[in-house]
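Private note to self, pasted from the team thread so I don't lose it. C-alpha coordinates:
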Protein backbone atom coordinates (compact mmCIF):
# COMPACT_ATOMS: atom_id res chain seq x y z
CA UNK A 1 0.00 0.00 0.00
CA UNK A 2 1.02 3.57 -0.42
CA UNK A 3 2.47 5.63 2.39
CA UNK A 4 -0.39 8.12 2.04
CA UNK A 5 -2.84 5.46 3.23
CA UNK A 6 -0.99 5.02 6.54
CA UNK A 7 -2.89 7.76 8.41
CA UNK A 8 -6.18 6.42 7.11
CA UNK A 9 -5.34 2.88 8.26
CA UNK A 10 -4.23 4.21 11.66
CA UNK A 11 -7.43 6.22 12.11
CA UNK A 12 -9.58 3.25 11.11
CA UNK A 13 -7.69 0.99 13.52
CA UNK A 14 -8.08 3.49 16.36
CA UNK A 15 -11.77 3.94 15.59
CA UNK A 16 -12.44 0.21 15.89
CA UNK A 17 -10.30 -0.13 19.00
CA UNK A 18 -12.09 2.75 20.75
CA UNK A 19 -15.42 1.27 19.69
CA UNK A 20 -14.37 -2.00 21.33
CA UNK A 21 -13.24 -0.07 24.41
CA UNK A 22 -16.59 1.66 24.68
CA UNK A 23 -18.54 -1.57 24.41
CA UNK A 24 -16.34 -3.32 26.98
CA UNK A 25 -16.50 -0.36 29.37
CA UNK A 26 -20.29 -0.37 29.22
CA UNK A 27 -20.29 -4.09 30.00
CA UNK A 28 -17.81 -3.52 32.84
CA UNK A 29 -19.94 -0.75 34.31
CA UNK A 30 -23.01 -3.01 34.22
CA UNK A 31 -21.08 -5.81 35.94
CA UNK A 32 -19.76 -3.29 38.48
CA UNK A 33 -23.30 -2.12 39.20
CA UNK A 34 -24.76 -5.60 39.38
CA UNK A 35 -22.04 -7.36 41.43
CA UNK A 36 -20.49 -4.46 43.34
CA UNK A 37 -16.92 -5.24 42.30
CA UNK A 38 -13.92 -4.07 44.30
CA UNK A 39 -11.75 -1.26 43.00
CA UNK A 40 -8.88 -3.66 42.30
CA UNK A 41 -11.18 -5.79 40.12
CA UNK A 42 -12.32 -2.75 38.18
CA UNK A 43 -8.72 -1.64 37.60
CA UNK A 44 -7.88 -5.12 36.38
CA UNK A 45 -10.85 -5.03 33.98
CA UNK A 46 -9.83 -1.61 32.64
CA UNK A 47 -6.27 -2.84 32.06
CA UNK A 48 -7.65 -5.88 30.23
CA UNK A 49 -9.73 -3.54 28.06
CA UNK A 50 -6.57 -1.56 27.22
CA UNK A 51 -4.80 -4.79 26.29
CA UNK A 52 -7.60 -6.05 24.05
CA UNK A 53 -8.24 -2.70 22.38
CA UNK A 54 -4.60 -1.96 21.62
CA UNK A 55 -4.04 -5.51 20.35
CA UNK A 56 -7.01 -5.01 18.01
CA UNK A 57 -5.60 -1.67 16.82
CA UNK A 58 -2.19 -3.22 16.15
CA UNK A 59 -3.74 -6.21 14.42
CA UNK A 60 -5.90 -4.05 12.14
CA UNK A 61 -3.03 -1.73 11.32
CA UNK A 62 -0.71 -4.64 10.55
CA UNK A 63 -3.37 -6.20 8.32
CA UNK A 64 -4.04 -2.88 6.62
CA UNK A 65 -0.44 -2.02 5.78
CA UNK A 66 1.03 -5.55 5.48
CA UNK A 67 4.58 -4.41 6.16
CA UNK A 68 6.68 -3.60 9.22
CA UNK A 69 4.02 -5.08 11.45
CA UNK A 70 6.09 -4.57 14.61
CA UNK A 71 6.15 -0.82 14.02
CA UNK A 72 2.50 -0.83 12.93
CA UNK A 73 1.55 -2.35 16.28
CA UNK A 74 3.87 0.01 18.16
CA UNK A 75 2.43 3.09 16.48
CA UNK A 76 -1.16 1.88 16.97
CA UNK A 77 -0.61 1.20 20.69
CA UNK A 78 1.26 4.45 21.20
CA UNK A 79 -1.42 6.41 19.34
CA UNK A 80 -4.13 4.78 21.45
CA UNK A 81 -2.27 5.79 24.61
CA UNK A 82 -1.65 9.37 23.43
CA UNK A 83 -5.32 9.90 22.51
CA UNK A 84 -6.35 8.42 25.85
CA UNK A 85 -3.89 10.71 27.65
CA UNK A 86 -5.02 13.80 25.74
CA UNK A 87 -8.71 13.15 26.41
CA UNK A 88 -7.99 12.48 30.08
CA UNK A 89 -5.93 15.68 30.28
CA UNK A 90 -8.76 17.76 28.78
CA UNK A 91 -11.51 16.20 30.90
CA UNK A 92 -9.58 16.38 34.19
CA UNK A 93 -7.96 19.75 33.39
CA UNK A 94 -4.54 18.25 34.06
CA UNK A 95 -2.89 14.95 34.87
CA UNK A 96 -4.34 13.18 37.87
CA UNK A 97 -2.48 9.88 37.50
CA UNK A 98 0.95 9.26 38.99
CA UNK A 99 3.98 8.49 36.83
CA UNK A 100 3.94 4.78 37.64
CA UNK A 101 0.35 4.43 36.49
CA UNK A 102 1.04 6.36 33.28
CA UNK A 103 4.11 4.28 32.45
CA UNK A 104 2.26 1.05 33.18
CA UNK A 105 -0.60 2.06 30.88
CA UNK A 106 1.91 3.10 28.22
CA UNK A 107 3.62 -0.30 28.48
CA UNK A 108 0.26 -2.12 28.28
CA UNK A 109 -0.83 -0.15 25.23
CA UNK A 110 2.41 -0.35 23.27
CA UNK A 111 3.13 -3.95 24.23
CA UNK A 112 -0.29 -5.27 23.27
CA UNK A 113 -0.27 -3.13 20.13
CA UNK A 114 3.02 -4.76 19.13
CA UNK A 115 1.61 -8.22 19.85
CA UNK A 116 -1.45 -7.44 17.73
CA UNK A 117 0.65 -6.06 14.90
CA UNK A 118 3.06 -8.97 14.85
CA UNK A 119 0.23 -11.52 14.97
CA UNK A 120 -1.55 -9.95 11.99
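Design output:
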Amino acid sequence: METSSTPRVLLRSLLFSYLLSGILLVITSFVLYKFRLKESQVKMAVNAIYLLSCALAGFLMGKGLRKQRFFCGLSAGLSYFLVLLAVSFVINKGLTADTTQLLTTLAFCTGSGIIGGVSS
